[in-house]
Amino acid sequence: MAANYSSSSNRREHVKTTTEPQPGFLERLSETSGGMFVGLMTFLLSFYLIFTNEGRALKTATSLAEGLSLVVSPDSIHSVAPENEGRLVHIIGALRTSKLLSDPNYGVHLPAVKLRRHVEMYQWVETEESRQSLLHWGVWPGRCELLPVGDAERLECLRRDGLTLGLPVLSLQRIHRGWADTEWRSEIVNSRNFDREIGHKNPSAMAVESFTATAPFVQIGRFFLSAGLIDKIDNFKPLSLSKLEDPHVDIIRRGDYFYHSENPKYPEVGDLRVSFSYAGLSGDDPDLGPAHVVTVIARQRGDQLVPYSTRSGDTLLLLHHGDFSAEEVFRREQKSNSMKTWGLRAAGWMAMFTGLTLMTRILYTLVDWFPVFRDLVNIGLKAFAFCMATSLTLLTVAAGWLFYRPLWALFIGCLALVPIIIARTRVPAKKLE
After folding, report:
1. To pair with 370 at 20 to 30 A between CA atoms, which of 18, 180, 200, 396?
2. Is 3 in a helix, a strand, or coil?
3. What DSSP element (H or E) covers 19?
4. Region labeled Disordered — which residues (predicted)?
């Protein structure tokens, strides 16, 4: 198990209370106008996102169907078959590289496609939490003062002392509670932005940087992987350092970390710790296990595996970790395409709903001073934005499918009318009530 040394004895807390004027009606109206512009841009962007997503999804699905109908599996990966030149091939095999990847500064050497050095620094980190409350006039016989409303027990005690709670005033009380603590972080934390920088200063740079080394040539049998396929080998695993020695008198190994520290158990701000991970083990290793096996679907160009261009204008260059049949690879890709499509549809609907909410926010601001009307208007605007966003999203999806699958487009277009029909049928019912 890797050691993870840290100290919580440096934790320091500070509290800051500020009182700010609450924006008046004209200020909030001005902010709402700016929000309307942002809402309009978000609303228009949602159409682009949804429409282009449908085109991308259909193009990908068509390309995958074409690839499945054309892919061939060579008899052997240890020879290049001339009859498969230019064709989409299905290759399964163990990865092999031409040389070891290494970091001589720490004595790390291993056969892999990628070797990553991860560096962290022990630094000050400031965490904040804040809460705000509306201030009311608290009136006693002979005196009055501003009180934040929210602590029911305290207010009840004050009422026993003769407190009368007045109207809210146009100001807010903000209470910021901050903690300065020390943590291992892989990025530089800028202490100049701290509320309390004195005594919590971090170094401005790391003496050792993180990096990732990549093998220049990677093979499966006789076939060389293109750069795009090498980029897809990203199944990083932590490298055990248990059999390595301390590389330098100033560097101490503890567990799976190299520490640039006098005492790793009690690190100081500015100390470093270094860990390693690797992806795509090349060749069998007595400590790390067998070579990593991958499944590749790509175009054969001589002894290279490169992208394949489909008739729909898309490219196929697939790599999956493990041993899979061609059918299983394409099934997994279709599932991934479907999940991505639905995720972007949801994002487009949310962008449209947010845009409509911001554009209609001005109506809520106009009745903000009347609590009963404010709540009713708020519910009505949310319902309007929900129905419109749902209908317009379905119509945009239908437009994206119109030239590819017109019957499905017609069906989705009819679904887009459902929220509007439901809303209209509920109006007469409410009038009868």
Report:
1. 18
2. coil
3. strand 12-21
4. 1-26
For residue 318, the model assigns a pLDDT of 97
Sign of CA dihedral 236, 242, 246, 251: positive
3-state secondary structure of 292: coil
Look at residue 140 in the predicted model and tell me its pLDDT: 56
CA distance 291 to 66: 32
Cβ atoms of residues 169 and 135 within 8 Å: yes
Please identify every stretch of the chain with a pLDDT value under 70, giving residue numbers as ranges.
1-34, 128-179, 195, 197, 364-375, 403-405, 408-409, 416, 419-433
Residue 133 tokens, joined: 């409350």
Residue 169's φ and ψ, nearest 5 degrees, are -105, 170
b/e 121-157 (16+ beta carbons within 10 angstroms → b): bbbbbbeeeeeeeebbebeeeeeeeebbeeeeeebee
- CB half-sphere exposure, 153, CA atoms < 13 A: 0
Query: 379: closest CA among 360, 398, 394, 395?
Result: 360
* pTM of the predicted structure, to 2 decimals: 0.73
Mind spelling out the 3-state secondary structure of the chain? CCCCCCCCCCCEEEEEEEEEECCCHHHHHHHHHHHHHHHHHHHHHHHHHHHHHHHHHHHHHHHHHHHHHHCECCCCCCCCCHHHCCCEEEEEEEEEECCCEEECCCCEEECEEEEEEEEEEEEEEEEEEEEEEEEEEEEECCEEEEEECCCHHHHHHHHHCCCEEEEEEEEEEEEEEEEEEEEEECCCCCHHHCCCCCCCCCCCCCCCCCEEEECCCEEECCEEECHHHHHCCCCCEECCCCCCCCCECCEEEECCEEEECCCCCCCCCCCEEEEEEEEEECCCECCCECCCEEEEEEEEECCEEECEECCCCCEECEEEECCCCHHHHHHHHHHHHHHHHHHHHHHHHHHHHHHHHHHCHHHHHHCCCCHHHHHHHHHHHHHHHHHHHHHHHHHHHHHHHCCCCHHHHHHHHHHHCHHHHHHHHHHHHHHHC
Nearest to 364 by CA among 353, 352, 376, 351: 376
- Segment 193-209, tens digit of pLDDT: 776 767 778 898 999 99
